[in-house]
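User: Can you help me understand a structure? I only have the sequence.
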Amino acid sequence: MATGTAALAGAVASSCVTPAAQQRTGRILLTGGCVLSLDSKVGDFDVADVLIDGSRIAAVGPKLSATGAQTIDATNCIVMPGFVDTHRHMWQGALRNILPNGLLSDYTRDITGTARALFRPEDARIGDLVSALGAINAGVTTCLDWSHIGNSPAHADAAIEGLRQSGIRGVYAYLGSGAELRRLRKQYFSSRDQLLTLAMATGESPSDWAAARDAGASITLHAGGSLSDVARVLGPDVTYIHCTTFTDEAWKRVRDSGGHVSIAAPIEMEMGHGIPPIQAALDHGIRPSLSVDVETQMPGDFFTQMRSVFTLQRMQALARRRAGDARAPGLLTVRDVVEFATIAGARANRLDDRIGTLTPGKQADVIMLRADAINVLPLNNAFGAVVLGMDTSNVDTVIIGGTIRKQRGQLVGVDMTRVNREAAASRDYIRSRAGWSKTRVGNGPQPETRD
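Assistant: Let's start by predicting it. Here is the structure, written out as tokens:
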């Protein structure tokens, strides 16, 4: 099977999404919004404007003037940085909600076992495209795609093409050989000044970590235990996922090496990974980032993630207070959790010099959330509305690198009829080859029966 540029020519020609060059509008002025910059030097504003010039944020403040700019009325909206996801298996986009009652053992048997073996390159492309478009629709402007669908070079090429077509800012984390990682670096990631950057998805393998660093790729792994196998090679370019079985020594090693943590609280609770280690990370001075993980049984938005982290940490801390624990931790605030969902994610993805805050000079990854919708009106606390009251329906506008990707509640330049058709065709192929049920009221593999 052909790989590389030639293999992708057909997919590029038949993209479901209008190319960014045809959508970019130059200067954009967002006016009159409640602005949460998440940059202490810039500040937050009850009412202010955000000026975008090309791909970058030019200014943030009240009553900005920008002759000739496209003006977007942000009155009754919260304007803030886009959410940043640090771990999502995006090739599974066409398998959403297919394993709603499954545990981790069911997932490894049915999804990374049966389904992955059946995936064609085109299934990887549409999976990544669907997942990325869903992320954009929910205000997630950056995703790290933990891509363990490298069945062949053509599969990796196709997954990257799905990300590229969507217009999302993506970190493509490839699971595979160092030689293939170097090919991908040369072919797709030769410049850092682009929407897609490169990482290596791996395990506790010093040789893999060396290959990643040789290719200039960051490192991301599902982690547990003591990290003793990689204790000598830890660094600030590593993100540790889940961490539900970390020893105290592991937490100290991550902290002392400047590493990052990615918590997928809903999945960890639902699938049986263990209790999300929010408090353990905080106790060791680590501000965790957030991640969706899999859409086979959890939604792809960050409102679910933020509420899960906020309520779980407070439940645990308050239980310790009621038990008379004098060392019970403090309570997370809604602002803390918004920071986890933005700037902490940017740091973990090694993009904090470019995204994560509304700072002049950074890339214009900006979202507008409607604060006049019935689920949050009237607006009393912006951070509280974002974390506790909102959902995807509040996401009015999404801008990535200065390009408007969603406006007035609708994705821009996306042929949704075609996306739906291609996603359904991929799902039907996998379902048929796997021998799974075809009824929509109980579609897909069935988890093992448990008492």
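Now, to help you interpret it: Residues 63 and 216 are 42 Å apart (CA to CA). The first helix runs from residue 4 to 13. Let me know which part you'd like to focus on.
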